[in-house]
Amino acid sequence: MAIPLQAPDIGIARRRSRPGERVIVGLLALCGLLSVLVTVGIVLVLAGEAARFFAKVPIVDFLTGTRWAPSGGRVDAGEFGVLPLINGSLMIAAGSLLVGLPLGLATAVYLSEYAPARVRGIVKPVLEILAGIPTVVVGFFALNFITPSLLRPVFGEGRVFIFNAAAGAIAVGLMILPVIASISEDAMRAVPNALREAAFGMGASRRVVALRVVMPAALSGITASVILGVSRAVGETMAVTIAAGNTPRLTTNFFESIQTLTAYIAQTVSGEAAAGSTRYQSLFAVGATLFVITLGMNLLSIRLVRRFRQAYQ
What we know:
mainly alpha; MetI-like fold; 13 helices
């Protein structure tokens, strides 16, 4: 007669865990707790200093003002209107998408659907190396090559400022290209081959399979890569500061000098602002604005990923 087998007592197995495992679990939990505490500390510092700033400058005037000139010394809505800085950040983000999105998606489609394994093994590491180039180097490349050698010969030297939003947008677009390409390619390669084989079996070409089967199936990953790229574009500092300048201007002309939220922070922390002054506190107000924008983008990314996610078995 067969003797029934009994499942091991999981509770006993847990109680008999090795001391080293408990130490590792504790360290992992401590790391997770530390990251939460750091985030909470950053939010509290931003909120505290921003509240002191908004006690002097009304938040409505801050969000709707069209002039940003904190060095003037007066505390009024005209000098602390953040719209020019937001406008500059959005111009850089939009312009970088025009550069990075089509190139990134085209690269992802090629690597996922067309490139041989040997070519993919070479191109993808090169893309990741491109993502690791220091932003200062990219900024100097935009200042010394993109503006004088690309933009001015095409659009005219008199129309294009030496510091301009177009050069900053192109530089940031090159920086977010590896992010969009790499994450999108991973999402496309995660699509089951059964979908491709079914489409090929119905007579579809490789282009139709890539654009109408694989890309819609990987839409959640592609969307996440795009929003991640936009978040990096909004938060980019040095490349934009070097290429686009530090002139807060409410404009839609990409050939003029602008200033972004991050560029103002980088400019002001150089030591000119006295601690406790309105200009010093404006750093935290601008930082809180940038924090809210990036947080909103991350929440939008999570929502879109959940909405378009497709599970395959």
